[in-house]
Amino acid sequence: MSSKKGGLSLPDRPGAGAGDGIISRVSSSISQSPIVYQGKRAASDAALIAKKLLKSTGKAAWIAGTTFLILVVPLIIEMDRDAQLTELELQQASLLGTPPPASAAGGPK
């Protein structure tokens, strides 16, 4: 028995295999098998690859998102503004009874 200061202690555990039961022996032999080792290694590699893939996908999403905001959104706003202006010119021309301006009809200004 090992003695510890100030309390009750359990006996020291004997060496592996000496007094262990069949379940612990089978469990230790399975956990030390090459198949389990390869499975753990494959799972670790898969987790590492998934982590790298997720990180690079996040970077790509960030680049695509910021590019969209900087280049495409202003273009969409300008096209909408131009369409509203053209519609307003057509409305004014129809109210005044004059032919629509050349720019509103699709011709050059």
TrEMBL record:
| UniProt xrefs under InterPro entries | Tom22, Tom22_pln
* Cellular compartments annotated: Mitochondrion outer membrane
The UniProt keywords, alphabetically, are:
Membrane, Mitochondrion, Mitochondrion outer membrane, Protein transport, Receptor, Translocation, Transmembrane, Transmembrane helix, Transport
What's any GO biological process attached to this entry? intracellular protein transport
Q: Report whether Protein biosynthesis shows up as a keyword of the record.
A: no
* Region feature Disordered, mapped onto this chain: 1-23
Tell me the membrane topology, using the record's own terms: Single-pass membrane protein
The portions of this protein that span the membrane are 60-77
Out of the domains of life, which is the source?
Answer: Eukaryota
Q: Which GO terms describe its cellular component?
A: mitochondrial outer membrane
Q: Which family does it belong to?
A: Belongs to the Tom22 family.
PANTHER family to which the protein is assigned, alphabetical = MITOCHONDRIAL IMPORT RECEPTOR SUBUNIT TOM9-2 (PTHR46867)
Q: What is this protein called?
A: Mitochondrial import receptor subunit TOM9-2-like
Source organism per UniProt: Nicotiana sylvestris (Wood tobacco)
